[in-house]
Backbone:
């Protein structure tokens, strides 16, 4: 009988302990719920950043070749219909804010100026705009002079021309802000300056659509390249121009089109394109106070 009573007491104690443990576990779970939600939130953010980083690291895979001898070897490369360029993690290639010559057609030279000229002095430090890998380090007597081409993880290639000295070698990995050269006046140059180009698979993009040198900033976190905006240039004489990419209207008489983007104004567009506001208005039957909207097409 003693054993029977002891057995009943033991079973009762076990049931009480299990019940207490279950309640305690439920209390712990309840108290941890907000923490778990916060952890899941943090994990979600971290995962998204990781995915963004993986995308960022592999966007340069749009290139099928690697050439250390030519600045523009992409005659047969396929350009995507659209491509989003990540502008985060940038460093301005020079602290200079003075733009001396803009992107666009130069009547005096009868050719396109496919980059942006920034006033620098001989010996000024020029740095890589983004992380990437140096593709070309060469000298071009009739053009870029001493120049460097860097292919970046975001798909862009940037060109730094008229340098007095190159500080990197081909195939070298560089970080955004790392010195790659010194400002100069070499090649086809008429005064010390940095000739800066931004290209995607050889297609020249107006650097002012990406970089705001006076403000020392980029124009946004991302820039979307649309292939339809860039077609072979044809001069009024019928010959192909020196710029590989321009708008479709160039084939019909020399004009080109600009697609309005969010935040654009007639003033900002005229600066980007290197033309006066009055000319822009005249070409599009607009007034200076006219309202323009995103995706609107302007002729210039």
Residues:
């Amino acid at each position: 009988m003693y054993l029977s009573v002891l057995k009943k007491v033991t079973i009762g104690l076990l049931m009480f302990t299990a019940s207490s443990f279950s309640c305690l576990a439920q209390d712990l779970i309840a108290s941890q719920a907000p923490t778990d939600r916060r952890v899941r939130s943090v994990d979600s953010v971290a995962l998204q950043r990781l995915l963004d980083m993986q995308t960022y690291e592999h966007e340069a895979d749009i290139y099928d070749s690697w050439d250390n001898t030519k600045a523009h070897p992409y005659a047969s490369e396929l350009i995507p219909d659209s491509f989003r360029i990540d502008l985060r993690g940038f460093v301005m290639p020079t602290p200079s804010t003075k733009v001396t010559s803009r992107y666009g057609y130069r009547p005096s030279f009868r050719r396109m100026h496919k980059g942006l000229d920034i006033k620098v002095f001989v010996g000024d430090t020029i740095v890589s705009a983004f992380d990437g890998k140096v593709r070309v380090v060469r000298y071009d007597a009739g053009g870029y002079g001493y120049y460097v081409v860097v292919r970046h993880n975001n798909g862009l290639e940037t060109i730094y021309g008229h340098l007095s000295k190159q500080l990197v070698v081909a195939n070298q990995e560089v970080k955004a802000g790392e010195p790659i050269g010194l400002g100069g006046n070499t090649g086809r140059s008429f005064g010390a300056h940095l000739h800066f180009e931004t290209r995607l698979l050889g297609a020249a993009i107006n650097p002012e659509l990406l970089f705001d040198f006076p403000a020392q900033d980029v124009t946004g976190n991302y820039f979307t390249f649309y292939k339809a905006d860039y077609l072979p240039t044809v001069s009024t004489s019928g010959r192909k121009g020196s710029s590989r990419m321009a708008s479709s209207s160039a084939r019909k008489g020399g004009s080109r089109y600009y697609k309005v983007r969010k935040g654009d104004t007639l003033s900002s567009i005229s600066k980007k394109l290197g033309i006066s506001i009055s000319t822009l208005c005249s070409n599009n039957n607009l007034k200076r106070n006219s309202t323009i909207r995103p995706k609107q097409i302007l002729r210039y």
